[in-house]
Amino acid sequence: MSGFGRECAEIVRAAREGSYKIGMILGSGLGALAEEVEDAVRIPYSHLTEFPVSTVTSHSSELVAGTLSGVPVVILSGRAHYYEGGDPTVMRTPVETLKELGCEILLATNAAGSLRQEVAPGSPMLISDHINWSGMNPLIGEEDEKRFLDMSTAYDADLRAAMKKVAEETGDPVAEGVYMWFSGPSFETPAEIRMAKTLGADAVGMSTVPEVIMARFLGMRVAAMSIITNYGAGMQTHALSHDETKSVALQGMERMKQLVRAFVKEIGQ
Ligand code: HPA
């Protein structure tokens, strides 16, 4: 089973020659990072074969190829989610495209709810590992033996160390924790949040895990970062909403931009 990554990579190369080092996927409210890319071409997903256009407001659905901190990068500004159509392979072609364009590293970002009081809304959290609570997997149906993918080092230790180093250099250490994937699109219940805490999660969200599995399947090294936009259900007095996700992600954007730029510089040399 394979997607249209090669075909899409050709379309990108026709618009901008070159090979790329780091691929990024931007989550809810984080699209502003794509504006930082220099010498860029911007290609709407609708021009890329089999690229899913997200139905989520705040996802812009364009591929941006260029340089960030002098490093050649491809940014996928906007992702499609499992909950949009029930397809865990929905991001297969976009991740394959990054790989075909030469990206050895994937940096995935998302918005997430915190389960830890000390990791407050507005702050970033580096993902150290995940729990796949959805029960879904983008490798279902894969026939190759490669489907029995080792996930014990999914979130690359060297990349995490690099992110922690650049965070400390800017005087603000970054929290690190386990991300638990719920299918969504409804938010969790307070009971589910208590369960998630008991099971060892530090944050909850509705994305990223399928792309990480796919990227590892393709042999990419992975780093992932959440922007915490709220506390988990039952941990805050007001209701959870996508409006809050978008507005708090925007508030955390400056810090996120600073970290991502420094990280790309650190690992891209
Ligand atoms: N739960 C799931 N997804 C989310 C959350 C949350 O609390 N916040 C942002 N995305």
Automatic annotation (TrEMBL):
Domain of life assignment: Bacteria
GO terms assigned for molecular function: purine-nucleoside phosphorylase activity
Listed EC numbers: 2.4.2.1
Classification via Gene3D superfamilies: Nucleoside phosphorylase domain
This protein's record includes keyword Transferase: yes
Top-level EC class: transferase
Binding site for phosphate: 28, 59, 79-81, 111, 207
SUPFAM superfamilies: Purine and uridine phosphorylases (SSF53167)
GO biological process: nucleoside metabolic process
UniProt cross-references to InterPro entries, sorted A to Z: Nucleoside_phosphorylase_d (IPR000845), Nucleoside_phosphorylase_sf (IPR035994), PUNP (IPR011269), Purine_phosphorylase (IPR011268)
All residue ranges annotated as the Nucleoside phosphorylase domain in the record: 21-265
Keywords linked to the UniProt accession: Glycosyltransferase, Transferase
Chain residues that bind a purine D-ribonucleoside: 188, 230
GO CC term (a single one): cytoplasm
Pathway(s) where this gene product acts: Purine metabolism; purine nucleoside salvage
Pfam families membership: PNP_UDP_1 (PF01048)
Transmembrane portions of the chain: none
NCBIfam families reported in the protein's UniProt record: PNPH-PUNA-XAPA (TIGR01697), PRK08202.1 (NF006054), PUNP (TIGR01698)
Protein family per UniProt: Belongs to the PNP/MTAP phosphorylase family.
Subunit (UniProt): Homotrimer.
Job description of the protein: The purine nucleoside phosphorylases catalyze the phosphorolytic breakdown of the N-glycosidic bond in the beta-(deoxy)ribonucleoside molecules, with the formation of the corresponding free purine bases and pentose-1-phosphate.
Protein name: Purine nucleoside phosphorylase
Species of the source: Roseibium aggregatum
